[in-house]
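Quick log. Single chain, no ligands specified.
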Amino acid sequence: MTSSRIGEEVRRLASKALSKGYQLAESSIKILLRRENPDELLEKLLAWLKNSRPGVVLVESSVVEEFLKSLDEVEVKEEPVPRTATFKVKSMSYSDVWIEGSTEEFRLYFNVRYQRLREVFEKRGISVYSPSELINQRLKEAYVVGVVSEVRAIRNNYQLLIEDPKGIWRIIVPKGNRALEERVESLLPDMVVAVRVRLRASLLVAQDILLPDIPPILHRKPSGPDVNICIVSDIHVGSSRFNEELFNDFLDWLSSDEEDASKTAFVVINGDLIDGVYIYPGQESELSLPSLNKQFEKAAELLGKIPERVTVIYVPGNHEPVRKALPQPPIQPRYREILDSKREIVYLGNPALLSFDDVDFLIFHGQTLDDVIQAGSRFSYSTIHTDAASLLEFMIKSRHLAPTYGGVTPLLPLKDDPLMISEVPDVFATGHIHIATHSVYRGMQLINTGTWQEQTRFQASLGLEPTVGTAALINLRSMRIDIKHFG
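-> predicted structure:
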C-alpha cells in the first residue's frame, strides 16, 4: 500500500470514528490497518470502548493494543475443541503367561496378594501389624492385616479367622454394633482386610474393619478432546436370543449425524461378542448359529457397518473361544482373520487397562462378579438390577477383580497378581451380569453396559431381568456418562 493510499485509509477510519464520537490518534489507526478487515475491527473497537471505557474520547495506541489483546484472548477461548483422541494400552496381553500348577505357586500368589494390599493400607497412613507382633509387644490396640479365612456367627459374636505369613489368627467381632456386624457379614474368603483390634487377655477383639478401598479422585477440569468412548458388552451373536434388530439400531445410530454419534471415536466391546459353543449344558438348543466360524462371520458382518472413523477395541469374555482362566489373552488369530476381513479391530486381553488422552479406563468383562454373588449373602441375581452399582463398588473397595478365590471363575496364580487394582482408573467398566448401571464412587465412574441378548431360560430360573439394548457413552472432555437405550 502506497503512502498516499495509507493516508487516505487513515483519514477514512478517523472520519468513521469521529462520526461515532471518538478521536483516534494516527498511530492507533495504523495499528488497525496492519490487521485484516480494519473496518470490522474498528466497529469492534468502538463497541468495546462504549462498554469497557465509558468517557474515553481520545483513543491512544496503548488503548488499541489493550483492545487487541482482549480480543486475542477471546479468540483463543473460542477455538474449537479437538474432536480426535489417542489411546494407549497399559496392560499386558496375557498371551504368554503360564503356570505349572504347583502348590508353591498358590502360596506365592496369596503372599503377593497379602503384601501388595497391605501396602495399600500403609499408603493410607495406617500403621499395621501382624497379630503376632501385637501379642508379643503387648500393644493394647492396633490395626492388623490378614487374608480372610473364615467368618462364623456364634452366640454373642462372630469369629473371624485371618491369615498372614506368620499364622492363622482368631478375632472376636462382638454383636451389638450394627455397622460392624454389616462389615463382617460382607467379608468373603480370601479378601485382604485391616482390623482394628483391642487385646483383651489373650483375645483379639475387633473394634473396626477396613477394606483397602481407593482414595478420592480429584475432579477433572474440562480439558480433554470433545470425544465419546462407547462401551458395549454381551452381544451374544449366534444366540437365538440375540436381538439383532436393536443392535442394528445401534449401528445405524453410530453412522448417523446425531451429535453424540458423530463425536464417538472409539467402540469398546467388553466381552461376549459371540455366544460361543459348549459354554453350558443344553446351549445347542438356544443357538441360531451352531459353529464358532459362523458366529464370527455374522459378527464381522455387523461390525463392518461401524464407520471407519471409529476405532473398535475387542476384549474377550467367558463366551469367547479363549482360555477361561483369568487373566485372558485376546482371541486367537484364526478368528481375528474372520473379523478383520470386514474392518480393522484392536484385540486385547481381559482385563485391559487403557488410557484415552490420559483418562484411564479399566475394562473387565466381569466373570468374577458371579463369585462375589455366590460366595456371600449380600447380593443375589434376583435383586441385581437394583444392586449392580453396589456390587461394582464392593469390588473397587476390595481393590481386586477377584476378591474371593476358588469360585466358578478359574484364576491363574501369577506372581504379579494382574487382577489387583493397582492403578486407580477414572472409569471402571464391566459386563457379564447383563444389567446396565452407572454410578460414581469417590470420583470414579462405575459402569455396567447391559446386554443385547433377551432373557435366557437360565436367567429366568434365577429371576434375573436383563437390560437389553444399551450402550455406555463417556465424553472425555466433560466426563459425562450416558447410558443409551435402543429400541
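The chain has a mean pLDDT of 91.
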